[in-house]
Design brief:
single chain; globular; about 0% strand
Length: about 180
């Protein structure tokens, strides 16, 4: 019975990452009032890492990075590495702090977003050889951080409630099977 729950969770994480990827790449670019698109995949990765721990954060980060690697022209594995690190880093705080608080997830989102953007900026500097730091900071990084933090307020709470409900259902099924 435990394996069925794990397989169901992995399938849900994968489908959620696919849905977030579709919304992030197909819907957000057409919204003209957004200066930059929020990073939904990053929100899902650090949320699952923070709620369930390092193993699930790495797994969700792997799926998120896989989606990004399959559809973007960066070298294969770059996004897997970045998102897996973000899931692991967020998972380090899962047993120390309560997931009810909104302040720590916002701080984790901010740190994750800054790490993600600077990792991409460092990669592009290594490949191109030029660093357009001021332009990237003003036109890409700061607007993306702002919108990601704003969306985190809503998405984190929805994911937390949905995961608690799934945990209760899984606990009930486990007790009935025993």
């Amino acid at each position: 019975m435990r394996y069925q729950i794990v397989i169901k969770r992995i399938l849900i994480y994968f489908l959620l990452v696919v849905l977030a990827f579709i919304v992030q790449t197909c819907v957000f670019p057409f919204l003209s009032f957004l200066a930059s698109a929020p990073n939904l995949i990053l929100i899902i990765t650090f949320t699952y890492g923070f709620i369930y721990g390092t193993e699930w954060g790495i797994l969700c980060g792997f799926f998120a990075g896989l989606m990004m690697d399959l559809f973007y022209t960066e070298p294969f594995g770059l996004f897997i590495l970045i998102y897996s690190y973000l899931g692991f880093f967020s998972g380090l705080y899962s047993h120390t702090y309560r997931s009810d608080s909104i302040m720590l997830p916002l701080i984790l989102c901010l740190v994750s977003e800054v790490f993600y953007n600077f990792a991409i900026l460092a990669y592009r500097y290594m490949t191109i050889g030029e660093l357009y730091f001021n332009y990237s900071l003003v036109h890409i990084i700061i607007p993306e951080i702002f919108f990601t933090l704003l969306v985190t307020l809503l998405v984190y709470r929805i994911l937390l409630i949905a995961n608690r409900r799934m945990d209760r259902v899984d606990d009930l099924r486990g007790k009935q099977a025993a």
